[in-house]
Amino acid sequence: MLRSLILLLFTAFVGGLSAQQPLDLIPYPASVTRGTGTFTFDADTRLRTESAAQRQVADFFTKQYARATGWDLMAPGRGRKAITVRQDTALGDEAYRLDVNADGITVDAGSLHALVYGLQTLRQLLPPAFEDSTTVTDVAWEIPQLTIEDEPRFAWRGLMLDVSRHFFPVEYIKETIDRMAFLKLNTLHWHLVDDQGWRIEIKKYPRLTEMGAWRVDQEAIAWNARETNDPAAEATYGGYYTQAEISEVVDYAWRRGITVVPEIEMPAHVMSAIAAYPWLSCTEDTIAVPSGGVWPITEIYCAGKESTFTFLENVLTEVMALFPSRYIHVGGDEATKTNWELCPHCQRRIEAEGLAGTDELQSYFIRRIERFLSELGRTLLGWDEILEGGLAPGATVMSWRGMQGGWEASKEGHDVVMTPTSHAYFDYYQGNPDYEPTAFGAFTYLNTVYGFEPTLDSMTQAQRDRVLGGQANLWSEYVPTPAHSEYMLYPRLWATAEVLWSPRSVRDWADFSTRTRRMFPRFDRMGINYAKSAYQVTMEPQVDPAAPSVSLRLASEFPDTRIRYTTDGQPVTAASPLYDGPVRLSSTATVKAVVFEDGKPVTRPTEKSYVFHEAVNARATFEPTYHQAYSGQGDVTPVNILRGSKDFHDGQWLGWLNTDVTIELDLGEAKEISSVQLGFLESQGAGIYFPTSVAVSVSEDGQTYTETGTFTRELQSAPETTIEDFGVDFPARPARYLRLRVAHGRSWLFLDEVLVR
């Protein structure tokens, strides 16, 4: 009797623990009511549906279930346990209710796509081994008893993939759709056209893919340093999607609750089209598809020729036959209208339509395309530049240059999608550039994404009702491969998904961070190449120039991490000191620091050297003085111990534009020295180049200088951002004054420290 009572109490205790184990769900549901105990899947569990359509959209779940468990949810017979799927029209179109008890699971859904969301939640409740591609036998296939009532906060929950700057195969597009569905995102914005490549087959205009889809391969050169291509040069880099492939992707996405919205750029970002058909431009010059960055964008469609609109209407007709989406994105951004100012066709159009100038001509262009789409039952969507000159009546605005464009459009009664650079641009760095692949020179951290709010406090309720939602954007100038694309997307896309789905009341950065970290093993099993940048240790130095000394604060973006460090350049181990407060340095040190979990380092260690050299606190003068936009910490910048990073906006760099530089240092007293090294940054895509020579002269009296040596180097093509020290070593000699002549003269020169030893 006593033994039975103990067993009963123990079972109840374990059941209670199971019921209260954390729910690792992203995005987090609107409402969760926890029960007691679990539901256990077994070989007799079956999926019961009401229709073939339900079985079709549940296919992703039943197939993965069979792979991981070895059991067939669709096997003959009703089974002892069931996952029962029901349509409930009383629920919202994207709402579902998931009820789990000991005897079975019920998923009530307002639509087929809501059923997908319910099954994705069920999937995330299952153990991470559910994501395996082969049968796993040593796992308890059970989930906690609970009731979830859930629906999204916003109707538009999107991701934009740019496949023009770099082309990605269909298989990767489908993988991305699978990841989006996992996160309950519902809109894939497919950027199919840009200057650097036309990626969609248009049967009426075959040269768009025969010529416009290909460019000269300059992949070994930094994006913005690539040369203008000769139209006669062989074009070997690129690719495109056939109409059959596009239909396949659209159908694949629909089965997973995702609508694919195509973007066909106009009137700018279309050099790929003009390369194929020069008559589309004002000048009709023969051009090549560019291999890299283009700015300003002057080669744009001619708005004065009727043939341009005939071409676009024919293209859009084929596009609409492939994409059932209500929305057709037409770009509308970054058009430099220089050629329109000079074009007789455009000037005649301006006069005939009574337009005030080229801004209104762009408005005419967009309004005309909007009218064409509207007559065919579609809605024009464009970047916020389509506001310029007046907004087309039925247009929807995608606000990217901040939130103001969305505010203005909503004030005028237009629907908007918020996607500001500040929170939604995933081609930006997500961590310290010293430990990240090359990206656009700005930052969108994981916690920044999680802080995104698509509505503004200054909006009226009517304006808020016009905000459809938001999306993340991954432009691919610096993203050449699928693996790199995944790295830039995840985990930031998980944050976007939660922002757009979950109520504000359940969102919490610390909780999201914890769930994200606990879900990494699941994503490992899914084979996702996610970034661990939020673990990377940051070092915040505070210099006391009088001592001199440096006080270092260590942190990671994820809260409550365990950071271990060394100050002697030795590897960091599980036995290294645990960080618990600022680290003080008073002599030369190489600091390494890394987050540890389960006794192992999570990332590469952050490493920084702090050299207390002979020129620390020296008086420095410059001829010419540094550029006001890149003034670092002022005159003390190259003698303050602190080194710059690959982020040239970090406040530790002095910059000069198109000039040689002379730097003079007064060490305060004569010192025995034998080496002078200067630290420089090169980022050719940003127009920053290493010097071609550094000449070092020294003096004891400040009057008579002796040259100790000159370092020279040839200009070299370099696609990556790098930091190097250049200078000279020489036999030891006394010196108080140094004169350093740096030859450059090309674009930007960036200097962070002068190390005198």
TrEMBL record:
Q: Which residues form the F5/8 type C domain?
A: 609-757
The enzyme's first-digit EC class, named in words, is hydrolase
Its cellular-component GO annotations read: membrane
Q: Which Gene3D superfamilies match?
A: Chitobiase/beta-hexosaminidase domain 2-like, Galactose-binding domain-like, Glycosidases
Q: Which Pfam families match?
A: CHB_HEX_C_1, F5_F8_type_C, Glyco_hydro_20, Glyco_hydro_20b
The residue range of the signal peptide is 1-19
EC no.?
3.2.1.52
| Catalysed reactions, semicolon-separated | Hydrolysis of terminal non-reducing N-acetyl-D-hexosamine residues in N-acetyl-beta-D-hexosaminides
Q: Which GO terms describe its biological process?
A: carbohydrate metabolic process; glycosaminoglycan metabolic process
Its keywords, alphabetically, are: Glycosidase, Hydrolase, Signal
SUPFAM superfamilies, alphabetized: (Trans)glycosidases (SSF51445), beta-N-acetylhexosaminidase-like domain (SSF55545), Galactose-binding domain-like (SSF49785)
User: Which residues are responsible for catalysis?
Assistant: E334 (proton donor)
GO molecular function, one example? beta-N-acetylhexosaminidase activity
The record's family statement is: Belongs to the glycosyl hydrolase 20 family.
Protein's UniProt name: beta-N-acetylhexosaminidase
